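Input sequence (139 aa), recorded before submission:
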Amino acid sequence: MSQDSPDPSAVSGSPHTLALLPPLPPRAAAAEQAALPIFRELPPRTAGRAADLDQLRDVELDVTIELGRTRMRVADVLKLTDGAVIELDRAAGDPVDVFVNDRLVARGEVVVLSGRFAVRLSEVVSPMHDGQQQGHQQG
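Predicted structure, token format:
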């Protein structure tokens, strides 16, 4: 082996030979650049916001109804048994919070509809700007 070429086993203890590829000839380099995609400016939108929303109508979102919260010590949680009652931070009749993907969107009252619980919305929360609206935080 000549002094100019490194010993292949000296590179990270690998017995494999490292090979350097020669630079592309000018014609091949031009062909490689020609294969890059060409992006054109999109035409202005004419359909408006309704068309954008139509594409999202089938997307499923997580909806959570929060009846109330409480804080408990681990020792108290470990003592819970069937029939235990946990007191929440809201009074009976207070509105419940409606979260969509952990973002507060409305408040309402719990009702029974065909034997199932439901929520009748009483207030739709307007979104705050600049990210000031707080998401659903586990307390």
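Checked by second reader. The domain at 57-124 is CATH 2.30.330.10 (Surface presentation of antigens (SPOA)).
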